[in-house]
Write the structure tokens for this entry.
Amino acid sequence: MSYVDGFVAAVPTANKVAYLEQAEVTVEMFKECGALKVVETWGNDVPDGEITSFPMAVKAKDNETVVFSWVIWPSKEVRDAGWQTMMADPRMDPANNPMPFDGKRLIYGGFDIILDK
């Protein structure tokens, strides 16, 4: 069954174009490494919570927008091999492709799909 990587980050709103430019590079890499689909979303209705929320989880500031992204892989094995290849690729070097957000506040994880209708 397919496997999903999910990501949540706080991106300075002024860096939206830079974020999208970086996403175009990484999407190409994900696809080269076997990803089936990559989705990047830009928050426009992401409320603050009382106990937890997307903005709280990434410590979003007033001048930042929460992004939510995911990559669908054919399997965890393809994903693991793909990430290994990507991390060795010079396009992932911050000198070549700087992150337009604070990577220390990036939340990510891999997920088994348990329902897909």
